[in-house]
Amino acid sequence: MPDLSSMFRLDGRVALVAGAASGIGLASAEGLAASGALVVCADINGPGAEKAADGIRSRGGQADSFALDVTDAAAVDQAFRDVEKRHGRIHAVVTTPAVNIRKRLLDYTSADFDKVVRLNLAGGFHVLQAAGRHMLAKKGGSIVLFSSMRAVTVEPGQSIYAATKAGLIQMVRGLAVELGPAGVRVNCIAPGVVETPLTAPIKDKPEWYQAYSNRNALNRWAKAEEMAGPVVFLASDASSYVTGAVLFADGGWTAIDGRFAPPV
Ligand SMILES: NC(=O)c1ccc[n+]([C@@H]2O[C@H](COP(=O)([O-])OP(=O)(O)OC[C@H]3O[C@@H](n4cnc5c(N)ncnc54)[C@H](O)[C@@H]3O)[C@@H](O)[C@H]2O)c1
User: Fold this and answer.
1) pLDDT in tens, 199-218
2) What is the pTM of this model?
3) What residues pair up with 249 in beta bridges, in sequence order?
4) Pocket lining for ligand 1, CB < 6 angstroms
5) Within a domain: residue 36?
6) CATH number at residue 121
7) Per-residue pLDDT tens digits for 122-170
8) Is residue 105 one of the residues assigned to a domain?
9) Between the CA atoms of 66, 71, 75 and 81, what dihedral angle is there, to the nearest 10 degrees?
């Protein structure tokens, strides 16, 4: 049973965040550190990961960092072994790296398809495997992947990205079922629209940016920091009975049916 007064705290725990150099990964690393975890910041952008760890340390938190390409299965395995050697155990793993090539399906090239699937789906798979093996051996832990509301609702140009985001959910559910008996929890967060470098090109187009604000129940975009709460929740004992779940942190995007508000 979680201690209700400290169930969101992560003191004495180690969290690894892949994608920690930017956007939601950076906010996740900062949120986990502020909740007491020692955070290992990993990213293909090594200097960016180190900058994230520096920022955490400058605020009195604990962090270290290394460069990691999640598309490289052997490198991901090695990273988990290295972090285990350095810190003993990894209690929580969060992974965010993804790419979106916005093109109509009929225009997608095989190279486009491979690029999106390789990072979004295979990258997630590699982290699930390495984290799952580590946590199975340690008999516990929490893994959090980033899906998207695009897993359930699409628009022109999003088919392949959406397919990877839906695929991640089924992988997460499968692993949650397989590792549940060992006390390992596996969940997804599905954001709506979040202001990060990934979505910066949309912000540059006022009509597009505003349309996305109007499309969700809160009538605005999320800040990256607003994803830190869901991450800390899923990483901590506050979610001790939550596994195989998809937490929609989408401002109500998927709750709204259509673009018309009836006059009631
Ligand atoms: N921003 C949004 O509106 C939004 C909405 C729904 C879902 N999401 C999902 O949230 C996640 C994070 O998105 P974001 O907006 O923070 O993206 P971002 O582009 O700001 O950050 C992605 C990070 O991943 C790193 N990265 C890229 N390739 C990598 C690799 N091969 N190995 C390791 N690191 C790599 C990048 O260097 C970067 O630091 C993604 O999975 C995205 O699909 C974002």
Assistant:
1) 999 999 999 999 999 999 99
2) 0.98
3) 191
4) 18-19, 21-25, 43-45, 48, 68-71, 96-98, 119, 123, 146, 148, 191, 193-194, 196-199
5) yes
6) 3.40.50.720
7) 999 999 999 999 999 999 999 999 999 999 999 999 999 999 999 999 9
8) yes
9) 80
Q: Catalytic site residue 161?
A: yes
Per residue in 6-30, pLDDT tens? 999 999 999 999 999 999 999 999 9
At which residue do the structure tokens 């991640």 appear?
168
Indicate the number of domains in the chain. 1
d(CA 110, CA 157): 15
- Assigned domain for 126 exists: yes
Q: Please choose, from the candidates 192, 187, 145, the residue with its C-alpha nearest in 3D space to the C-alpha of residue 18.
A: 145
In a domain, 7, yes or no: no
Residue 50 lies in domain: 14-250
For residue 18, how far is its CA from the centre of ligand 1 (angstroms)? 9
